[in-house]
Write the structure tokens for this entry.
Amino acid sequence: MADRFEIMQKALIKMLEEKKYTTLRDILVTMNPSDIAGIFTELEDRQIPLLFRLLTKEQAAETFVEMEPEAQELLIRGFSDNELKEILEELYADDAADLIEEMPANVVKRILKQATPELRNSVNQLLRYPENSAGSMMTTEYVTLRPDMTVEESILRIRRQGVDKETIYTCYVTRDRVLIGMVTVKDLLLCADDETVIEDIMLTNLISVSTQTDQEEVARMLSKYNFLALPVVDKENRMVGIVTFDDAMDVMEDEATEDMELMGGILPSEKTYLRSSAFDLFKSRVPWLMLLMVSATFTGLIITAFEGALAAQVALTAFIPMLMGTGGNSGSQSSVTVIRSLSLDELRFGDIGRVLWKELRTALLCGIALAAVCFVKIWLVDRMLMGNEAITLTVDAVVCLTLCVTVVIAKLVGCSLPMIAKVLHLDPAVMASPFISTIVDALSLLVYFLFATLLLGI
Amino acid sequence: MADRFEIMQKALIKMLEEKKYTTLRDILVTMNPSDIAGIFTELEDRQIPLLFRLLTKEQAAETFVEMEPEAQELLIRGFSDNELKEILEELYADDAADLIEEMPANVVKRILKQATPELRNSVNQLLRYPENSAGSMMTTEYVTLRPDMTVEESILRIRRQGVDKETIYTCYVTRDRVLIGMVTVKDLLLCADDETVIEDIMLTNLISVSTQTDQEEVARMLSKYNFLALPVVDKENRMVGIVTFDDAMDVMEDEATEDMELMGGILPSEKTYLRSSAFDLFKSRVPWLMLLMVSATFTGLIITAFEGALAAQVALTAFIPMLMGTGGNSGSQSSVTVIRSLSLDELRFGDIGRVLWKELRTALLCGIALAAVCFVKIWLVDRMLMGNEAITLTVDAVVCLTLCVTVVIAKLVGCSLPMIAKVLHLDPAVMASPFISTIVDALSLLVYFLFATLLLGI
């Protein structure tokens, strides 16, 4: 599938180079805007306007929205005022607002000059909402009906107004701009009697979000309720916009990516991997590495403090990586599970007691199983097979007791830190494996040397 | 928001206990099925049928679909044959198939006995497709039109048939069951002339998936093209079903969760966190921990082999946790970025050259920055502040050279393993941090002792 598409892309680019414009136009007209936008990422700068001019007017606008900001800027700079006006006329207000956020100031000025007063108005309004809020992701183009309209009148209104609306399938019923109900096109079409009044068939148990609601919450609600669109209201419950399912899907993808990046100790970035330069990647990765490297000073200090013990029982050193690795892995298992459950809203801070109890039992099961296997493995492999006489039964016991305790500590730390972060209104994903590993490393070394001192008398 | 809902839940449960059924029914009728299903998870077993009987017929079916399998089973066992039949009549074929997959054999038998022959047929057909394929997630209820129908006839057909269809907004045009076009209700409603023939307005550059397409691919396509639904065709291009956006959203969420679980070294599970017992969690977590613990034998062996060197320069031991930690973190940063880009289809195996080159430069930037800071830190903190005379300039150099090389190795291993997994048709997420850390740990120790031998002459 993907490869067939790549072959087709190459063929189209070759046609462009060979100036086979008529054939190219015939092929482009059958293609989907998302796929056409994909071709633009593979073109050289001078080819971009060439290919763009081959698109039909409607396709041009839809493709434009899907393109990368660099290509958009290049095109706008090359557009005549008239061309720019034509594209802007085809854009939905939320797409235009996104575009303006990405462009440099002088390009924004040109865009706003060519936009219709209505578009300029909607865009300005959208840009006033906080980033990542329902207000900033909503569109202001939706269909409203009055409660006293009949089904027939409503359908007529949709047919007249629908062409400019992002969705016509969910219509909102307002009185003095206040949202009072909702009716779907399905309800209207399936309604047997054309004279039925909207008020009698509209749904009134409405679910809406405020302009300030976080976009993650909006996406989760759309997904939970299986809605095509969710109405956005202001503080006075006046309807100001809608968020559609396709924007919610993008948010879900972005939020999952952001969580994964945070879990991996990376500062989230909006750019895709291949578009990020090595320096971009460096900037988003080095802060965590630096922080964790410096905080590893503690583990170093602990080892230095017990240098005497290690010199006396040199076999102990060999197990440090295994203990720390298992601790880190156990902790990250718990933190990943809890972080994901929190972000899917399956878990709240009030559940912390249940979580700790569940993790404690899981940790004991894991810890005992691991310690048992480790005990046998050390004896069979390290002592018998490799013939390391320094490994006595007591050394083996110290290692395995530490292993079990480390797993328990790691799981308890791993599950509680993300929940605490949530309560402090931090992103729980920040409290993921790298951070937890550093804490667990230090704790497990302390436990190790404690058992060594107690059992080996050093 | 969430808390207000919890308070409401508690109030409703209290009403149920106090047998205030009329009030309860009045409130339930205004609520959304997803939210009602949420209440059932908080009820005791004996209360479940009580509350369920208070729902209207339509609400009952919609709520039933959103409930947990345990509650569904309990309800079915309590249903009379007639009640079961009523619920089944309201279910879409894909929801019925999901239900049957979750229920034990004797319940399935009862369900199939009460289902209409058509439903039984559709369900059987759906159950025959491989798990996680488009065929298994599609629904067979969609609207088809003939190419020679007029717009008016089409709207009439939708009004007659639509009530049983999962979506009416996208209609598919078929000839001899072969998919030849697509038309939206928006197109139909906005078409000025009722006598226009479908063939003239239908879209023919169709994007469809086969019954065998993986559900992740289907979800990605729906999200990429912003479609409400995607047609599913068999090998002869005959239309067999549609996948709707709401199912795609669920798949996206599940796949992101699965990737995160794999990245955290957990075997994915379908159960939510709070529904999993400690033993369930143990089973999904212990395999990776066991594997990684045993493979840490290598790091242990490497340390044992260089025991002499460590005994001679005991200060070296203190830096092992820092080196391994930084290596692990660097590797997981690269693997997380690459795994996510692969799963969003932003990256293909053909890009491996570009990826390696980008990671190499990023790694050098990170490695040099970290080594420089580390060099100064060791000298100022460990030597001057803590007064550790064993740390000479050469020891400091050995540690920082190792640090830089480790970061480079970690990033190259971290980015290439997931890409290799992809080519071998394994899930790239399996090649995440825990796995990579173990490899990087061993390599970084080898580098450490190599530099120590060369520079310190031990």
